Amino acid sequence: MHYSNQAQTAQLNNRIILQKYVTVTNDNDFSIKEWQDYKPIWAAAKNLHGEEYYAAGEEQSKKTAIFTIRYRRDIDESMRIKFGKRIVDEKEIDRIYEITFIDDIKYQREFMEIKVLEIFPE
């Protein structure tokens, strides 16, 4: 997105949820790692296609997308994003995206682009 600050803000019209991989204690008092929702935030969502898709060097079986959000200091590549739904074996499940790269656009600390790959259930 290369618009004015006001235009960029208006395009942040998709609700995404950041998730963290955390250690929790289960019912049997064992420590286990699991993904937990961290923060819901507004984002602009864009699937890569055409020239952008091939320039990114991704295989066709992978779904690559970019989420643009307001700048935040509390995001890193160890997190993932939950956005949208998909049907798998006649069940509706959340779409989950692995964060592959985070870009502070022009180092201005106003907006960030988060490049992601969709994780498909096994």
Overall strand count = 6
List the domain count as a whole number: 1
Q: Do you know the CATH architecture?
A: Beta Barrel
Summed over residues and divided by their number, the pLDDT gives a mean of 85
**Series of H and E elements:** HEEHEEEE
Count of DSSP helices? Answer: 2
The 3D shape can be described as globular
The class by helix and strand makeup works out as mainly beta
Which fold name fills CATH's third level, the topology? Thrombin, subunit H
| Name of the CATH class | Mainly Beta
Radius of gyration: 16 Å
Instruction: Describe the strand arrangement of the main beta sheet, using strand numbers.
Output: 1-2-3-6-5-4
The CATH homologous superfamily is named Bacteriophage SPP1 head-tail adaptor protein
Which residues sit in consecutive blocks of at least 5 with pLDDT less than 50? none
Q: How far is the first residue's CA from the last residue's CA?
A: 33 Å
Measured as a percent range, the helix fraction is under 10%
Strand content: over 45%
Largest sheet features: 6 strands, antiparallel, barrel
